[in-house]
Amino acid sequence: MAPPRRSNSPTSVRLRALRKVRGIATAQAMSVLLGVSLGRYLNFEAAAPLSKEAAILIVQKFPGVTLDYLFLGRVDGMPAALARDLEVAEREILARD
Q: Which of 13, 28, 39, 85 sits between 20 and 30 A of 46, alpha carbons compared?
């Protein structure tokens, strides 16, 4: 199997940052946690549009994460520590890629 494509699309970076902050090492672990197929989740990390259904699952599984963050990158209304940690993780991901 070929390694998944990496994308620096805003949504892709936010999903990867969320995994990092929550200590979820792999996309496979995230897909299991969300109850979606690995292929579907990898598509989201590879810049396919994030579905409303998947976004709602993420918000339900990760307290403090908002739809505004997932779709728009807005951290308003999120716990300050979570917002800060996500912003740091996003910068690290962008610097590494």
A: 85
